[in-house]
Amino acid sequence: MDLCDKYNLVEAVFWILCGLGVVWSGVWGDVKYRLVFGLGAVLLILFGVSDWVEMGTGAWWRPWWLLVWKGGCLAGFWVLIVWYRKLKGEGFNGDGLIGGKKGGKVYGTISNLISKRRKMLKIIIICHLEHRRKLNLQLKLSDYRILE
């Protein structure tokens, strides 16, 4: 058994254990998610078994049906993620990034988060400068390079 086979064996065991963990979560979790968790567990276990098969073939793209098998598992994961998010009442925003719903508005895009954090940081720095000014201490705005 060479290094690649050992890696595929570890990966196969990892995905199968993840599948068993998802089964556990599905059994003890919310009833409305059980089907999603059950199908996710099956897909994770099948993905682990595909790694086991890969040990014998030597490549994930050879033979062609192994590539289709792995691609089908990945497509299934994506479908389950979308389905799970719809069940939770969360969706996808116009940027193609995952975002949730809060008060009917979509939030959570990376650009919105960065913009909000910059604004908060500017407010904090301006409040800090105002406080320092009131104490009659000299502090220049240029000391804070973040605002540039």
Topology:
Elements: H1 3-28, H2 34-57, H3 64-88, E1 91-92, E2 98-102, E3 105-107, H4 110-134
Antiparallel strand pairs: 1-2, 2-3
Helix pairs in contact: 1-2, 2-3
- Alpha-beta classification: mainly alpha
Helix content: 55-70%
Q: Tell how many strands the DSSP assignment holds.
A: 3
User: How many separate helices?
Assistant: 4
Shape, principal axes of CA atoms: extended
Q: N-to-C SSE series?
A: HHHEEEH
Q: How is the biggest beta sheet arranged?
A: 3 strands, antiparallel
C-alpha Rg (nearest Å): 25 Å
Strand content: 5-15%
Strand order of the largest sheet: 1-2-3
Averaging pLDDT over every residue, what do you get?
76
Tell me briefly what this model is.
The protein is mostly helical and 148 residues long.
Task: Give your account of this protein's structure.
The protein is mainly alpha-helical and about 150 residues long. The protein has helices at about 5-30, 35-55, 65-90, 110-135; strands at about 90, 100, 105. It contains 4 helices and 3 strands. A 3-stranded antiparallel beta sheet has the order 1-2-3. Strand 2 and strand 3 (about 105) form a beta hairpin. The chain is extended, with a radius of gyration of 25 Å.
